[in-house]
Structures are given as structure tokens and as C-alpha cells.
Amino acid sequence: WGHMGGLAGGALAALLLGPRWKQTTLPTARGRWLVDAAPVPWLRSSPKPLDGGRGRLRDSPQWRALQEHVQAIKQTQLKDLLQEEARTDGLIREAGGLYMDFSRQNATPDTLKLLLELAEAADLRGKVDALFSGKHINSTEDRAVLHPALRAPRDAVIEDAGKNVVPEVWAVLDKIKAFTERVRGGEWKGVTGKPLTNVVSIGIGGSALGPLFVHTALSTEPEAMSQAAGRSLVFLANVDPVDAVRALHGLDAERTLVVIVSKTFTTAETMLNARTVRAWLTERLGPEAVAKHMVAVSTNLKAVAEFGIDPENAFGFWDWVGGRFSVSSAVGMVPLSLHYSFPVMERFLQGMRAMDDHFRSAPLHDNLPALLGLLNVWNSTFLGHSTTAILPYQQALQHFAPHIQQLSMESNGKGVAIDGTRLPYETGEIDFGEPGTNGQHSFYQLIHQGRVIPAEFIGVARSQQDVYLQGEKVSSHEELMCNFFAQPDALAMGKDAATLRAEGVPEHLVPHKTFTGNRPSLSILLPELNAFTLGQLLSLYEHRIATSGFVWGINSFDQWGVELGKVLANKVRAKVQEARSANCPLSAADGFCPSTVRLLNRFLQQGQT
Ligand code: F6P
Fold first, then answer.
1. pLDDT above 60: residue 137
2. Where are the alpha helices (DSSP H) in 241-298?
3. Using CB atoms within 10 A as the burial measure, which of 165, 395, 466, 595 is most buried?
């Protein structure tokens, strides 16, 4: 592609192979999945190698065109651009009830055109096709990346190595449905004959953050709330003993079901917490409690059995589901269906599926996740903004930003291209966030007058809950949303010195009260926050992150960067235990640098008291 110029992949393939849709209508295994969404003009077997993007995309004319375009954009001001009706129209999209306005990006329709050309050069469509068709795009682990199969319809055909994975997905879903109904209906009881109304979900990272985010978002949604009446769900993630104490505080073991969630079933923190909670249960209820009070979610059913849990009480998933993409697998479905019921969670899966279908079939120009991912590349790589603020104006989305942190930073924080060559640009961005308006009273000072941080505002038109005072509805939601609309304009428009002077602001305060403006944001508006729209939102971000990774030419689906620290922790653990049992301080001979030796000895000394 590097030598083909602007029209490269798409136009050339069309010339050589005819219109793309002709290839996709073949009755291939995955064809049945395409039926409802047809015609899907771009879904095709990629004629290019899967690693076609690579860091060398930087040498392409499309990349250079965007670099030159940066200079043009730097001459613009959002306060002027935002007056243009036609530009506004060109930078708003809507799909499946989700309204996305990116007119407050430092961008014009030309930017969009150039980004779409870059997407073409990076073979974005081919890579999306490869993802949905089960190619082993996680090349460093030789794995497919098939999380969309977790929410595919029962009759879909999606293959990994020639085998349709959908029947297995539905076998597990059926098992989850049956099990959670038995528990919720009181048919599955604890060892003392009491119904199990409390759930403790033990897991960390992708085995906790996503389910916790969904749990928080549904906990105030009326339908989900009514399904959860009389039940409790807590997550235990950290190996800090304080987290175990917090999670178990006030729980009645006789009524508690523990779900151990770990893809590998080897994660040190999770396994230690699992052993702790197993001891907590068996001390109170005897060894037979494990069979009734502990179940597992894992890809490693052998390790589950070794832990003492009957594989019959385990819910499997597959190595083609990345931990951070596993919310829609048994990882999220078991604890959340126990709490909210399977039908509620099925609507969540349907919402995800709706966004998957959109991502798969909508032209890139109108494709919400693709556009979000491309704008992300624009902000981070071309404009040099290394941070993104995720700002939901919805307390129920309190744990959205922490989940996106893992999803995005573990996926796209990479230093090399998919072929192992060092990247000539930085990938990924630092994601952080907090619900509005809380964040306004915390870090917004910096995003208004300090560093430029592209912000993603997420609002919801109808509140999950209303508050009444003496029979009158309190306007809290209106108040919240007024801020949701005001903040993006404050960031974009700013406030200049002349305006301040005209308002009579004393001269010495003018610089302090000036807002430079021209700060980018985008706004996403959902009609309401329920299980379905929550699924749409999550899938939107999953695919947005994959899009950026595809364009950067990296493998967004491995996470080797988390290994080194884990290995070093093993060495520290062994040495600390050795020093404790020998009652002798560590020295340089233990193989740590002088700083670590001093820190460890201080810990050994102070930790003994
Ligand atoms: O440390 C990172 C990680 O491997 C994540 O990718 C994963 O979500 C988490 O640990 C938990 O892993 P597991 O589900 O195997 O316990």
C-alpha cells in the first residue's frame, strides 16, 4: 500500500477484484452472520497482510497529508469554526439512538476526509473484517479476537480455526441462565438450606473492572433495581487485606455465593483472595460449603478443579476473549445475572450486538466507533495531546473511566508495531475521568486553563431516577445536563481579555480570568441509561480502541507490558520470606539495587511490629 498513493487499497482492489460486496455475498461460513446487515460493502477477505499498517504508515502520503493539515488546523479557532452551520452538520453522527457531536474537535470536514484516507491506507476495513472473521490478529499469542461472538445471535456462524464458536458461546449462556435462575429462585441453596442472596465476585483487572462498571450503572436503573431487590453483589479485586475485609464485612456466609473470576486462574492476587474467602466460608460452614457456595469463571477448567471447585460449577470462556474485552462473557454474565437476572443481562448483550453490527456494517464515514478511534489518533498522534478525559454526566457511570483506562491503556500502550519494529510515534493515550459535575470541582481547572486535554462528554437525556420534594420533581437532572452542555462550550469558546475588561474586571485579574478556549471535546448523548444502551456504549468504546490500534499498526490484544512487574514481585516475595525465616536483613547479595535493599529492610523491620 505504501507505494499506491491516496486511492491505494480500496480503489485498486475494486479495479482488480470488482466491487467488494460481490466477494462478501459468497456463502462462506461467516456469511450467515452477514444476512441481516447486508449489504456490507466493505466486509471482505483482506487482500493485504494483516500487519499492513505497521509503523511505516508514517511514510505514507496520507500520513504526510495529515501532518501538513495540522498546520492549517492550528490557524483555526473553535469559536469561529463553531459558527459554521455546514461544518456542524458535517461533524454530527447518529446511530442506534446514540448521538455523537464532534464539532468541538480541532477539526474540519477536511480533517475527517484525511483521517478516512489514512484509515484506508491502514487497511482498517480489512483489519475489522479480520477481527470479525476469526483471523489470529493477536499474532504474539496466535489467537483470534472474537469478543463480538460473545453477543452474536444463536444462529450466527463465526469460526476460529474452522470451528464455529457460537454454539459453545450459547451453551455457556444457557448454563448461566439455568444456574442463575436456580440460585435466584431459591432452588440452589447453601449448605444450611438458606437461599443464596449475596454474591462476592473475586477477580482483578479485566475480571473485575468491566463487571463493576456495569453493576454500578445498573444499580439505579428501575427495571434492574427491581430484579436485584433483596440481593447484594460486591467485588473483591485488590490483594490488600483491607479489600477482603471490606468485601466480606457484614456478609452472612450461609447466604453467600462466591464467584471466582479469572481467565488464567493463576493470577496471584485473585488466587490468594480466593483461598482467603474459601477459608472464611469453610471455617463457618465446614468443607462441604465449597460445593454449594463457590463457583468459578475461567478458561482454565483444570486449575478450577485443582482448586476444589467441581467443573460442573464452572463457566468457561475461551482464549480468544481478552481479559479486558470479557465483560460480555461469563466474566460479567455470571455475577451480573445472579444479581440482575439473565433477561436484564441479555438486553445488555443485545445492546452490544447492535453496536457490533453497526461497526461491522456502517460505512466508515458514518461509523461511530471508527470515527471515535480515528479522532483519537488525530488528537493523540497528530496534535500531540497525550491525555483523554472521559467525563460522563451520570453518577451511574462512575466506574466507566476506570474500565476504559484498562481497556484503552492495556490495549494501546505499546512501543512496537505488530511486526516487532519500534514505532516512530507514540500510541495510546492516558485516560482518566470522573463523573460530572464532581469533576468540575476537582480537575477541570487544569483542562480549562492548564494543559489541553481532549474531553469526551457523555450525557443521558432521561434520568434513571428522579427526586421529589413535597411532591415536586427536583430539577437535579436538568441541572446536571445544563453543565453537560455548558462545559464543552466553555472549553471551546473560552473568554478573552476584551470581554473581561468590558465586564469591568480589574486589569491585574484579567490574565488570571482569561480562558484561551479552542480546547477540543466531543459529546455523546444517550436517550437513557439502561441495560441495552449500556451495552451499546461499551461496545462503542471497545471498537473505538481497536480502531485506533489498527490504524497505529499495533497489536491491541496482547499485554506483555504487565509481565515484568509480576515476575519481579515473585522474586521479592521469595526473598522477603527467606529474610523473615532467617531473621536476617537483605543485602546486595540478594540481587536487588541498593534502594530496593533499603526499602525492603525497612519494611521487614517495621512490618514486624
Ligand atoms: O495483569 C493484567 C491481566 O493479565 C489483565 O489483562 C487481566 O484482565 C487481569 O490481569 C486478570 O487476569 P485473570 O483474569 O487471568 O485473573
1. yes
2. 241-248, 268-285, 289-293
3. 165
Within 459-607, residue ranges assigned H as helices are 476-493, 497-502, 510-513, 531-552, 563-582, 594-607
- Ligand 1 centre and the CA of 206: distance in Å? 6
| Percentage of residues in the chain having pLDDT higher than 90 | 90
pLDDT at position 458 is: 98
| C-alpha angle 318-319-324 in degrees, rounded to nearest 5 | 95
Q: Is the ipTM of this complex over 0.85?
A: yes
Instruction: Round the average pLDDT of the chain to a whole number and report it.
Output: 91
Rounded distance between C-alpha atoms, residue 15 and residue 35, angstroms: 25
Beta carbons of 406 and 208 less than 8 angstroms apart: no
Q: 150 exposed, middle or buried (CB, 10 Å; 0-12, 13-18, 19+)? A: buried
Closest by Cα among 137, 166, 172 to 154: 166
Name the β-bridge partners of 574: none
Q: What is the pLDDT of residues 523-536, one digit of tens each?
A: 999 999 999 999 99
Over residues 329-346, mean pLDDT: 98
Catalytic entry in 441, 473, 479, 571? 441
Tell me, using a 6 A CB cutoff, whether residue 406 lines ligand 1: no
- Answer yes or no: is the C-beta of 206 below 6 A from any ligand 1 atom: yes
410 is catalytic: yes
What's the whole-number mean pLDDT along residues 116-142? 97
Q: What is the pLDDT of residue 609?
A: 53
Asked if 441 is an active-site residue, the reply is yes
Atom 6 in ligand 1: which residue has the minimum CA distance?
Answer: 323
- Residue 73 CA to ligand 1 center (angstroms) comes to 40
566 is catalytic: yes
Q: What is the rounded CA–CA span in Å between residue 214 and residue 403? A: 10
Tell how far the Cα of 584 is from the centroid of ligand 1, in angstroms.
34
Distances (CA, A) of 567 to 258, 396, 481, 572, 577: 28, 37, 47, 9, 16
336 touches 211 (CB < 8 A): yes
In this model, does residue 254 exceed pLDDT 90? yes
Cα(548)–Cα(412) distance, integer angstroms: 8
HSE-CB at 133 with a 13 A cutoff on CA atoms is 19
Percent of the chain's residues with pLDDT above 70? 91
Instruction: Give dist(CA 24, CA 102) in Å, integer.
Output: 32
CA distance 535 to 221: 14
